[in-house]
Amino acid sequence: MFGLMVRFTCKDEDAAAGFDALVARTGAQIRANEPGTLIYTVHRVDGRPLERIFYELYRDHDAFDTHETQPYVRAFLDDRNAYLASTEVDRLDFVSGKGVDVEH
């Protein structure tokens, strides 16, 4: 498995609302079309209303590569910067956990 943890900081409250709408549209497409995307969650950060944290878990690197080439993901990547002040990305190498049943 392969994952990402991404912290987005929006420019202001209006930008955060626009970003959340973009995320909702993109997430619906991911849920409908990507069986290799095991987890794709978005969180608001308590006490920091402009921050969002994404946790993404993919079956493998191929599933991530497939995700990255989808037209709705490409549109998200192109459009997101209008709303954001900063982006931090951590690539994650799965060790262990609970919640996703996947054969290795």
Automatic annotation (TrEMBL):
Keyword field contains Oxidoreductase: yes
An example Gene Ontology molecular-function term: monooxygenase activity
This protein's name: Antibiotic biosynthesis monooxygenase
The organism's taxonomic lineage, starting at the top: Bacteria, Bacillati, Actinomycetota, Actinomycetes, Kitasatosporales
Species for this entry: Streptantibioticus parmotrematis
Family matches, as PROSITE patterns: ABM (PS51725)
Ranges for domain ABM: 2-94
Keyword terms of this UniProt record: Monooxygenase, Oxidoreductase
